[in-house]
Amino acid sequence: MVVKRSEMDHLLRQLDPALDAEIPAADSLRARSIRRAALERGRQKRHDGRRLVITIAAFVLLSVGTAAAVVIMTREPAEPEGVLCYETADLDGRAIVVTPEPGFDTSLCAGLWQDGTFASGSVVPPLTACVNPNGGLAVFPGTDTVCDALGLARPTDLRDLDTLIELRQRLAALTPPGSCAPLEATVTGGEAILRDLGLDAEGWEVIRPEPSEERPCASWSINAKLPAVVVVGLPDVFGS
After folding, report:
1. What mean pLDDT is predicted for residues 33-56?
2. When comparing pLDDT for 143 and 33, which is higher?
3. What is the pLDDT of residue 31?
4. pLDDT at 66 over 80
5. Which residue in 103, 118, 214, 224 has its CB near the most CB atoms, within 10 A?
6. CA triplet 96, 177, 195: central angle to 5 degrees?
7. How far is residue 234's CA from residue 44's CA, in Å, rounded to a whole number?
8. What is the pTM of this model?
9. pLDDT tens across 5-43, in order?
């Protein structure tokens, strides 16, 4: 195919718009250099296209991995001592501990908004429960994405906490505040509660301290990781 001089001039100007009025000869070194640069630009565009495809594929893989991480970030709550109600979706923000009841749901924290303890007065925002690394429940204002945003697990089933809440309530009845709960009676009473709730069949036990005349009173804590009720001796400061 024969290309006319005028057509060649037009092609060279398209390849290099910065050409001055004098168009180089089609077989000159400058014209060949312009054509070579155009070919290189074409290869670069194809390379950029492939890089874009690779980037999109990497993004898809990352998205799949993130979805898997969300599935992994769930756990059973295992700490019945108290629920942390947060005023903001911030782990360093203001929080108030509320005692949970069987059948727990996030409305336990709603009263703090309704009575003006938290900033927005009577307006209760959407509330979501998360599980902190210790197995305790923390309730934040926000939708069900707030746990992921804070790096916390989502609770698998809040009803699983009911037995532990009842265990806490019944142990508290054994050791009323303002009095010395006898150590041995607390241990045997705790063992009876575990049997009654069926927790002994799940491996729960009461860990007792060594008897001591200086520490005849009892206190306790629940450790769901062991799992056990840990009883400790205290001095009799009540003189009973």
Report:
1. 48
2. 143
3. 55
4. no
5. 118
6. 95
7. 78
8. 0.61
9. 455 455 545 544 444 445 455 555 555 555 555 555 555
Is the preceding peptide bond at 126 cis, omega within 30 degrees of 0? no
Residues 6+ apart with CB under 8 A from 141: 86, 87, 88, 89, 125, 126, 127, 128
Residue with tokens 């949970």: 100
Length of the chain: 240
Q: What is the pLDDT of residues 151-188, one digit of tens each?
A: 999 998 777 788 999 999 999 999 998 999 999 999 99
3-state secondary structure the chain: CCCCHHHHHHHHHHHCCCCCCCCCCCCCHHHHHHHHHHHHHHHHHHHHHHHHHHHHHHHHHHHHHHHHHHHHCEECCCEEEEEEEECCCCCCCCEEEECCCCCCCHHHHHHHHHCCCCCCCCCCCCEEEEECCCCEEEEEECCCCHHHHHCCEEECCHHHHHHHHHHHHHHHHHCCCCCCCEHHHHHHHHHHHHHHCCCHHHCCEEECCCCCCCCCEEEEEEECCCCEEEEEEECCCCCC
